[in-house]
Structures are given as C-alpha cells and as structure tokens.
C-alpha cells in the first residue's frame, strides 16, 4: 500500500512519542516498519484494540508498553484517560485472521478537554451511545473517505460524516482518512467537497489544516483541498 501524497515528515524527524493509539489492524492503520521505527525511538506506550498485542509483541514491542482495550474499557497515562469505544468495521491482515482482533474508536480526556478519534466505522446505533455519554468534544476526528456502495458497512459516506459530526457536537470537526491512500473510486477531495457544506449548515465548525501543519482547536483553516493538486498522480483514479 502506497500513499498518493508524500508523508509530511519522516519518522526519524519526530520527537519521542508518549502514546501511540491504534484503532485496528488494517494495513493503512498498522504498518510493521512504522511500529518498529517508533518503538526504537524511546519508551512509547501503545494503546490498541483488544487482540492486537500479539502482533506488536511479534514485532518487538515489549509487553509492558502495550495496553489492549475492549470497548468501553479505559486506561490512564500521565493524567490522560483513553477509552476504547464501539465501531462498525472489521479487522484482518491475511486471509486467515479475519476479526481475530477488535476495531475501535477512542475518546481521549484530560481535565475538561475531550477529543474523539473515530478510527474506521460505518454508521450504527453505537454513535448514539457515544454522543450521549460524552456530551460534546473539543475536537472530533471523524473518518471521511474510502467509501463505496460496494462496502456500505465499513465506512461513512460524506453525508453520514457530516451528520455524525453534528450529533457529537464538537467545537471543531476534523475530517480524516481521505488524504493519504486511495482505496475507493471517488476523487481524493470528493469527501470534503461533499461533507463540509452540510456540516457547516448543521452548525459544525470544520478544521482542515494543511498536511503537516501544526494546529490546535483555535486554528483558522481554509478549503485548500478545493484546488487541484500540483502532481497529476493524484487527480484521477
């Protein structure tokens, strides 16, 4: 699997990472070389969905630096609380390990601040439970891409992304899962062009930083993705 746009930085350019949060085992979310490179940089702790630890240990991550969570289980590190939440997706890396590890979304809480990481998930009743339990987020990172009518139970369509963002009631909504790997036939920027107008009409404030841009909840962003990419490699599938 290859990115259609270059990564904004190399792993060796990153500072030591305190916590690495991994939602599920698909190759676009879990990559052996990246895990091993991050593991070699220091004492990063991996918080992952239930069943993923065996693979991380196989790749050299010590057991004491792995925490596996089932849905609705939580763990705390350095005053930050991480809770694994339901998702509607699947997991596998080969033809023989289908759904042997769990797939999750996550809530991250520190004091009064709350963040939501959607991972991969299609629409489902679990969204109602998450919205009810957390009563709003500071930033919600929600999947917005790689959808298809051929796999409607794996990913959100743009309209669903916008409506789920409104349901979660975040101060800012950041669409993810659209600007790195092409795994569907839609144009690379179609998810944002379709979801953001609806999200804005529903009162949701989008956050769309440039790839590699450092941002926070107050960062002002523009619809830079509406312009064609300079490289012709990524404009037509």
Automatic annotation (TrEMBL):
<feature type="domain" description="Metallo-beta-lactamase">
    <location>
        <begin position="3"/>
        <end position="178"/>
    </location>
</feature>
<dbReference type="Pfam" id="PF12706">
    <property type="entry name" value="Lactamase_B_2"/>
</dbReference>
<dbReference type="InterPro" id="IPR001279">
    <property type="entry name" value="Metallo-B-lactamas"/>
</dbReference>
<dbReference type="InterPro" id="IPR036866">
    <property type="entry name" value="RibonucZ/Hydroxyglut_hydro"/>
</dbReference>
<protein>
    <submittedName>
        <fullName>MBL fold metallo-hydrolase</fullName>
    </submittedName>
</protein>
<dbReference type="GO" id="GO:0005737">
    <property type="term" value="C:cytoplasm"/>
</dbReference>
């Amino acid at each position: 699997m290859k990115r259609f746009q270059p990564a904004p930085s190399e792993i060796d350019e990153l500072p030591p990472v305190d916590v690495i949060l991994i939602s599920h085992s698909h190759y676009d979310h879990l990559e052996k070389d990246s895990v091993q490179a991050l593991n070699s940089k220091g004492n990063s702790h991996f918080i992952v969905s239930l069943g993923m630890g065996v693979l991380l240990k196989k790749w050299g991550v010590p057991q004491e630096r792995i925490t596996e969570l089932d849905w609705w289980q939580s763990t705390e590190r350095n005053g930050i609380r991480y809770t694994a939440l339901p998702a509607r997706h699947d997991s596998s890396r080969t033809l023989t390990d289908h759904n042997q590890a769990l797939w999750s979304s996550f809530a991250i809480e520190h004091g009064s601040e709350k963040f939501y990481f959607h991972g991969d998930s299609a629409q489902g009743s679990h969204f109602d439970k998450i919205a009810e339990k957390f009563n709003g987020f500071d930033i919600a990172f929600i999947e917005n891409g790689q959808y298809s009518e051929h796999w409607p139970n794996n990913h959100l369509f743009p309209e669903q992304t916008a409506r789920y963002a409104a349901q979660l009631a975040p101060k800012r909504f950041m669409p993810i899962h659209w600007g790195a790997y092409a795994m569907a036939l839609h144009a690379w920027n179609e998810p944002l062009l379709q979801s953001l107008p609806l999200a804005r009409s529903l009162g949701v404030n989008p956050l769309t930083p440039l790839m590699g841009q450092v941002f926070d909840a107050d960062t002002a962003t523009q619809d830079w993705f509406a312009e064609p990419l300079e490289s012709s490699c990524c404009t037509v599938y």
